[in-house]
Design goal:
globular, seven-stranded antiparallel sheet, single chain, 44% helix, 335 residues, five-stranded antiparallel sheet, 21% strand, alpha+beta
């Protein structure tokens, strides 16, 4: 089945489906999605290209799964007008930018930016999540964050962590959106709602994944924050392993508790206590991945101030979509 006639006239998400066995058709399909490229197929008889997903029409962001069925090499001179972001669900891929080579598997995705020549080697057993964001939408999102027009192309670091840090939260958001788009009763089928989700995805990757404008974004965000909030956030990050009470946070901030909570929710999105818990959870997750079983999960949790292991495990799973032991098992597997 080959469906190239998806309609971008509506503001609601558009389903896309491709089931292709011809390399030329596969190139044509993916060129329409991501941009111009060449495709080398290692075994044409085994090639079975599949792409199932959705296009979010207000910014033409595409989210879906693709696979080729055999080893292939994608050669890109310049995608021109899009950013291609992918994360294997199985198998692996390798991105060669000419300057360095990035290995990509279930724990690490890759980004291909416009104006960057590269080769992407994809294993035959690789099935991956692919997100395409238009260059125009990405640049508009960047300009809104820094408050001025950009003077040079936006280029991301090629490797995007899917295990730790803010970039891992971005991937979890993508997986959640995918699951919601498959539900006909979901809010994600509402044009007004999905438009805000698309903008959140763009700002999310701009603030979570390093690129050549990252310092400008950090400066712009800090300039918008009240100075007392910057001081309070720095304190929480520096002392996250120590016992901290709300009285301590209030004292450091120098403002009333009501103003502290109100401004944290206004600028950060969560109260200061929830922000501290997020820092600690990210810290535990990072340590679990780094230690790969050399220290027990309970020891690492205690070191970050989590004294009730049952509650910690429940909250960890709610935040990261997996248990601490599952994170540890993945870290061992990827050694």
């Amino acid at each position: 089945m080959l469906n190239k006639n998806y309609d971008l006239g509506s503001n609601t998400p558009t389903k896309i489906i491709a089931d292709i066995r011809d390399a030329g058709d596969a190139i044509s399909w993916m060129s329409n999605i991501c941009g111009p490229h060449e495709l080398e197929v290692h075994n044409a008889n085994k090639m079975h290209f599949r792409h199932i997903g959705n296009i979010l029409n207000s910014t033409t962001t595409a989210i879906g799964h693709i696979e080729y069925g055999t080893d292939v090499t994608v050669k890109v001179e310049d995608l021109n007008n899009s950013y291609s972001i992918s994360l294997p669900l199985s198998g692996f891929q390798e991105l060669d930018t000419g300057k360095n080579t990035v290995q990509s598997n279930v724990s690490s995705g890759v980004i291909i930016s416009p104006a960057n020549a590269c080769e992407l080697r994809i294993s035959g057993n690789c099935r991956k999540t692919l997100v395409r964001i238009s260059r125009q939408a990405m640049e508009l999102g960047l300009e809104s964050l820094i408050g001025k027009s950009i003077s040079k192309p936006l280029i991301f670091e090629s490797k995007m962590d899917a295990n730790i840090g803010a970039s891992s939260a971005w991937w979890r958001t993508i997986h959640y959106i995918e699951s919601e788009l498959s539900n006909p009763d979901s809010l994600y089928n509402s044009p007004a709602f999905i438009r805000d989700i698309e903008q959140a995805l763009i700002k999310g990757i701009l603030t979570s994944q390093p690129h050549n404008y990252s310092d400008e974004i950090r400066r712009a965000i800090h300039n918008k924050l009240p100075s007392y909030l910057i001081k309070t956030i720095d304190y929480l990050k520096l002392n996250a392993r120590n016992e901290i009470h709300i009285d301590d946070i209030e004292w450091i901030s120098g403002v009333s508790r009501n103003k502290l909570y109100s401004d944290f929710k206004r600028y950060i999105g969560v109260p200061p206590t929830a922000y501290l818990k997020r820092i600690r959870m990210e810290g535990v997750r990072s340590d679990i991945i780094k230690c790969t079983g050399e220290e027990s999960i309970s020891t690492l949790a205690f070191s970050w101030g989590f004294n009730h292991l049952g509650r910690f495990s429940t909250e960890y799973r709610k935040m990261f979509g997996e248990t601490p032991s599952e994170t540890q098992a993945k870290a061992r597997f990827n050694l």
